[in-house]
Amino acid sequence: MQLLRPLFGLAALQHSAHATQFSFSTPTVSTSSIQWTDLTAPPDANATSQLIFDAVNAVLQHWPHTRYRNGHTIIPGTVPVGTLLYHGRQDRELPRTPEWTSVDPEHSFPFAGDSTTDANTTAEGCWQHTLVTTRPLKVLYFDGSSAANIKEGGTLDMQDLLIWGKVDPARWVDERERLDDLCAWGNDFGLDGFVRMEMDFEIMLCDFSQGVELISTDYLAALWSRHITPPLQRHTALSLDTTSSADNLSGPNDRIVADILRFETIHAGSWHNQYPGDTRFKLDLTGLVSFYDTTLAPSLIPARRGKERWDHRPAGISATDLTAVKARVGEVLTRGPDSDGSGIDWQASFHVIVDRYADRLETLAYLLNTTTPDTVSERARLIQTQLRIMLTPYILYTARPTPGRSSTASDSDTWALPVWKGCATKHTAHIHASPTLQSRMTVSERLLLTALDKTNREICRVVVKMWAAGVHAGLDPFIPLESDDGHATTLALQDSLRVVHDWRADADRLMSWLDWAVWVKCRPACGVEEMCYLPTWPFFWHEGRKDERWERPQPRCIRRFEPYSQL
Ligand SMILES: *[C@@H]1O[C@H](CO)[C@@H](O)[C@H](O)[C@H]1NC(C)=O
Ligand SMILES: *[C@@H]1O[C@H](CO)[C@@H](O)[C@H](O)[C@H]1NC(C)=O
Ligand SMILES: *[C@@H]1O[C@H](CO)[C@@H](O)[C@H](O)[C@H]1NC(C)=O
Ligand SMILES: *[C@@H]1O[C@H](CO)[C@@H](O)[C@H](O)[C@H]1NC(C)=O
Questions:
Q1: Distance from C-alpha of 263 to C-alpha of 261, rounded to nearest angstrom
Q2: Which of 92, 239, 463, 537 has the fewest beta carbons closer than 10 A?
Q3: Distance set, CA 226 to CA 92, 247, 252, 260 (Å)
Q4: How far apart are CA 447 and CA 450, in angstroms?
Q5: Which residues form the signal peptide (predicted)?
Q6: Which residue owns the Cα nearest ligand 3 atom 13?
Q7: Same domain as 296, residue 425
């Protein structure tokens, strides 16, 4: 959130009710054309299913969106009745124009200023407004670090495209106009505000007199004995640099106070790091719109080509595609009650897949990279057992190679194809089979179903391929192979080495394709006095510190109390 003050002028927000109905007439998702013939065929390089999968999986979570700040997903939602919102400032005025609110007071407090007097002994200081929602607020969520003002960082692309039709690098800190224009645009849809993320989650509230009630205006005791430089002047919030000469009008504790304010803000953000994220927002995934949707925004396919995920930008979208995206966003914000979707809990459905594989794949990667047990053939057997365990629900009794044809190459994988198909289709086959669900699904839900299916299909492809290779190598304890002369085969050391080598390559490729944030951890794990941290805007703005670690955030442990670590 950029600190916007002083604030004058009343923005009268009208909540217009839209009841327009839209018929979503895309063709039903068909599985009949899907091939289950080649375990070696990797996914299309232009595919984005795994990225859409990851966006759904990462909704409202701080960690993944601190890592990939360049958001691509817009989701409508509500903030339920009874949610507390905070707004800290240096005077007791309630904002009369669109302004920020935080959901955690730790994020609001640093903006409340000091509680001393200025040079003219005018009382100025540490005011905190606490508001509560009195009806469900209608909000729009932008994923990524969508409140971080990073020039050319992609964080603001979606907002700027929606309101200004283009991303103008010169307007990266134009927060006043951005918010005013977002609210003016959102007024047509009855939007009360916008959910964004930076050090923590925030709601940019369009009207402090609509849907919220002021509970209290408190003059808090500040930790601080002087003013915080307004972020808009420095392009950072919480820019408390005690080394700057203009800033040292103060006592010896300032460094500590600055550290406390900084740490506690990201500390509060870290409470929402992992699934289920910040549960105070209720997002409606049946209205999800993604810039990774290759049907909706095909112009971004060539724009992403050759670029790493860090560098994907919605900004490269064509005018035609942007018109389509805006129309889609308009549709989901004006849907009637009849088009609220299938009733499937997509968040839970996606998370089932992540639960089933995140930890198992991580263990697999560990086993592939360890030297315990110390003989490669013992390790190979251990890993093969893990691969089998992952696939147990899908390995039918009949899934075994024909005796005598076991040790030949990939054309003998045919016996394993039903395991792949079972693994890849069991979670959603009932959706494909149900005409009722099919007819109720929104366009967004079809996108979600495809993302779920394709991501799951690829996980299953690779795991089955690995398992089948182990079976062929005679490593599977439950499918002992017999050689042509009827004796059990003994595995040569050379074969184990080759199998493990291939497995490692397969597992590496799969895990980098999935690229799940749950695997991004501090290694070794942080101590009790520490917290795992990803470099977070705006703390990497200090001169001379813009290195790769901030561009492509890597986790590290920081201290929870004095002496604080540099962020
Ligand atoms: C103090 O008051 C003078 C005269 O009213 C004004 O010009 C000046 O800006 C004030 N200083 C501060 C720090 O508010
Ligand atoms: C700020 O601190 C520096 C170093 O301690 C000192 O030289 C300077 O005079 C101080 N400036 C003010 C405005 O107090
Ligand atoms: C990927 O996208 C590029 C650029 O749009 C296109 O030329 C290429 O044919 C696509 N590849 C596949 C496998 O669809
Ligand atoms: C593999 O193990 C080595 C040594 O323990 C470690 O440094 C490296 O980070 C590991 N690589 C992966 C991908 O886990």
A1: 6
A2: 92
A3: 17, 9, 12, 15
A4: 5
A5: 1-19
A6: 44
A7: no
Tell me which residue of 403, 415, 371, 420 sits closest to 474, measured CA to CA.
Answer: 403
Q: What is the pLDDT along the chain (567 residues), one digit of tens a residue?
A: 543 433 222 222 223 333 333 333 444 445 567 889 999 999 999 999 999 999 999 999 999 999 999 999 999 999 999 999 999 998 889 999 999 999 999 999 988 877 665 555 555 678 999 999 999 999 999 999 999 999 889 999 999 999 999 999 999 999 999 999 999 999 999 999 999 999 999 999 999 999 999 999 998 888 865 544 433 333 333 444 434 434 444 444 777 888 999 999 999 999 999 999 999 999 999 999 999 999 999 999 999 999 999 999 999 999 999 999 999 999 999 998 777 899 999 999 999 999 999 999 999 999 999 887 788 889 999 999 999 999 999 999 999 887 655 454 545 789 999 999 999 999 999 999 999 999 999 999 999 999 999 999 999 999 999 999 999 998 998 887 765 555 555 555 668 889 999 999 999 999 999 999 999 999 999 999 999 999 998 887 665 565 566 789 999 999 999 999 988
- Ligand approaching nearest to the C-alpha of 511: 4
Residues 168 and 232 in one domain: yes
Q: How far apart are the first and last CA of the chain?
A: 18
**How many angstroms does the Cα of residue 386 sit away from the middle of ligand 4?**
19
Q: What total of structural domains would you count in the chain? A: 2
- CA 519 remoteness from chain centre: 13
Distance 236 CA to ligand 2 centre (A): 23
Please give the number of the atom of ligand 3 that sits closest to the Cα of 45: 13
The CA 200 to ligand 1 mean position distance, Å, reads 35
Q: Which atom of ligand 4 is nearest to the CA of 365?
A: 14
C-alpha 244 to ligand 2 mean position (Å): 9
Q: Is the CB of 243 under 6 A from ligand 2?
A: no
Spatial separation of the C-alpha atoms in residues 301 and 316, rounded to whole Å: 10
Handedness of CA 189, 192, 194, 195 (dihedral sign): negative
Tell me: do 153 and 272 sit in the same domain. yes
CA of 39 to the centre of ligand 3 (A): 22
Last-in-domain residue among 504, 519, 534: 519
Length of the chain: 567
- Residue of 369, 500, 506, 515 with the most ligand 4 atoms within 8 Å of its CB, for mutation: 369
Let me know if residue 257 belongs to a domain: yes
Based on the fold, state whether residues 286 and 348 are members of the same structural domain. no
Q: Is residue 193 domain-shared with residue 104, that is, in the same domain?
A: yes
